[in-house]
Every structure is written in structure tokens, then in C-alpha cells.
């Protein structure tokens, strides 16, 4: 692939016009939108309105002018991106908190079964939260196994299979309908973490017959640092499943100020406390970008961007740990190298922002809404420079910050 080839793909790219909806600094090729999505241009004005007008001028009246039902309203906006009905999704809290609620709920709703099965090497918070959640349910335990052993690990004691759809390091993608069916066949419930999938690959929770799902909104959905996360519970489970963090915002009538908890109907019961309105305002503006986007076009472009960097890596002899088949991966590409940290730093110094995942992964996120084929081609050329000159050997690139 030559640079002219990349430019020709840009000329025919149906998503090219979305680049203009984002603010990105000059001189940066941003390959970390899978960790913190870029800033949509609509967000600063939305935050300004939420502060100056809604908070400053309307004051407490704003609760009845769009704040109190923001979690449901944004849930309905996320729903089409994950193949859910509008009343099967709610937005709030964090992915970590949502995982806790759903793991405990699943254990309590699958009596006689005690095990939560998950993948060894899953995203850390998923496993940490599962550890904490099983400790809250008498008899429950967490069992983690390698991906290849998962099918055998699902047995008559499995209450819940909890998987992250796209792996944060390798970009390996599980076949959602197949694994959901496997869990169900064994009598287990299925919980999907879609943090690295939503906005990256087409999703259809309904077609997969999924029970529960969670996901971040600050990655491919560009909701901003720490943006509230989404939680999905299939309609058929909503009446039976209970939120173990029984807060007043999940109460059927919070403003009755009753002592006893009575869960709200539908998804509202999954709320806990007062929603974070300022970050919700940012997320709502960011979701606006997605309204008319064709997910199939996102997937097609993601695959083309991947191929550009995969070819660059192959030419350098780099070990690509991401699947070559686009049907089996998300929207990032990862290379394994013993000096991956220093390489990441050398790239950042040259304006190519990717990230490092311990111990030896260089991870480059491919966000079709605001990256051009030419951007990614140039990133590949800069990677080639860094590798050929061994520029990463500069001792300055060995120093580690807290956040990698
Ligand atoms: C990013 C990510 C998270 C982050 O959870 P927070 O509660 O937002 O910190 C959780 N799970 C997966 C799979 C992720 O990729």
C-alpha cells in the first residue's frame, strides 16, 4: 500500500465527513481513541449550556427540565448501537459498578449454581469486581481459565459466564451468539462487557439473545474522561433481577422519601444515586455524532485501517498479536515487542499517540470516525522510522508515568 493508495481510499470514504465533527490537535495522529475517544466539537457548548444555563440560571428547576430522566434518555440513545430496545439500556455509574450489580444479580437469580466463569487475562477491573461480587454472595466463587479452556469450564455449577467481547490487549473478539448459546445450553446466564466493542464493531445483543451487558462510553463513543457507562438487561429478565446497590434513584418513588426500598420498574432500578449531570451532558452531545452512522461502514473502514498498519508491521517483522480476520477482532491492532514501552514513547514524541499495555504490547486504536487512511499510513511510516533507527533506545523513553 502506497500513500497514494491510502489517499484514494480517503477520497471514496463515506465516513470521511465525520472527521470535521471532532477537535484534534494539529501534528497528532491519535491512535488511542479506544482508551479515551477524541473530543466531539459539540461537547464544549453542551457543557457550557449545562453549567451556565441549566445549572446557573435554571438551578434546581433543571431536574424537571431534562436532568432526572437523562439516564433513561441516554440509554435509549445507546440502544441502537448495541442492538437493544430503547427500554433495555440505562446510563450511569461506571462499567466497574455496573459489573458488580449484574454479577450479584445473576448469582442471586440462578439458584443452586455458584460459579462465575471468566477468562484469565480479562480486563483487570472485570476480574477484580467479580472477586468482590462473589465475596458478597454466600457460596459463590470465581473461576478464571484460559480462553481455550472456557468451553470446558462451563458446567452445571456455572451461574454466570462473564466475557469481554473484544479483548483490550489483543483485540480478539468472541462470537457473541455462539458463546451466549453455549452459556444458555449449560443453564448459565451470560454477561457481556462491550467496552472495546461499542462504536467499534456492529453489535446485536437482541439477535444474540444476550441476558446482560455493560460498557464504557468514553472509548469509541467519545463521551469524555470518566463518562457514565451503560447497562443492558434483556426485557425478559427485568422484573426478576434486582440491583444489590439499592439506592434511592432506583426506587419506584424516590420523592416519597420512604424508609423501605421498593425497586422501580424497568431499567430505572439499576440506578443508584444522583446522576452526574455535567458528564452526562458531554456524553449526550457525543452520542449525537452516532445518530446516522452505518455500523457496517465503520466495520469496513476499521478493517482497511487495520490492514494498513498490519502491512507496515509485517514489513518491519513486528509480531502482530491481533487476529487477521476482521470478523474475529475489534478495532485496534497490537504488536508484541520486548521494548514496546519505549517504542510507544518514541511514537508519542513523534506525534503518534498509541498506548502500551503491560508487559510487552504496543496497542494502536483505529477509530474510523476521525482517522483517515492517510493518517494511519503516515503512522505506519513513523513506526518504520522508529524501528529502523532504533530511536526507541533513547533512555528518555524508558521512564514510566503512572498511567500508561
Ligand atoms: C475500559 C474498560 C473498563 C473500564 O471500567 P471503568 O469502570 O470505566 O474504569 C472495564 N472493562 C473493560 C473490558 C474495559 O475495556
UniProtKB/TrEMBL annotation:
EC number: 3.7.1.3
Protein biosynthesis among keywords: no
Keyword Hydrolase tagged: yes
Binding residue positions for pyridoxal 5'-phosphate: 95-96, 123-126, 164, 193, 196, 218, 248, 274
Name of the molecule in the record: Kynureninase
Assembly, per entry: Homodimer.
MF GO annotations: kynureninase activity; pyridoxal phosphate binding
Cofactor: pyridoxal 5'-phosphate
Pfam families: KYNU_C (PF22580)
One BP term from GO: quinolinate biosynthetic process
Protein species of origin: Sphingomonas oligophenolica
Catalytic activity reported: 3-hydroxy-L-kynurenine + H2O = 3-hydroxyanthranilate + L-alanine + H(+); L-kynurenine + H2O = anthranilate + L-alanine + H(+)
InterPro entries: Kynureninase, PyrdxlP-dep_Trfase, PyrdxlP-dep_Trfase_major, PyrdxlP-dep_Trfase_small
Transmembrane segments: none
Alphabetized UniProt keyword annotations: Hydrolase, Pyridine nucleotide biosynthesis, Pyridoxal phosphate
Function summary: Catalyzes the cleavage of L-kynurenine (L-Kyn) and L-3-hydroxykynurenine (L-3OHKyn) into anthranilic acid (AA) and 3-hydroxyanthranilic acid (3-OHAA), respectively.
Annotated GO CC locations: cytoplasm
Residue numbers bearing the N6-(pyridoxal phosphate)lysine modification: 219
Pathway stated in the Swiss-Prot or TrEMBL entry: Amino-acid degradation; L-kynurenine degradation; L-alanine and anthranilate from L-kynurenine: step 1/1; Cofactor biosynthesis; NAD(+) biosynthesis; quinolinate from L-kynurenine: step 2/3
Top-rank lineage group of the source organism: Bacteria
Protein family (similarity comment): Belongs to the kynureninase family.
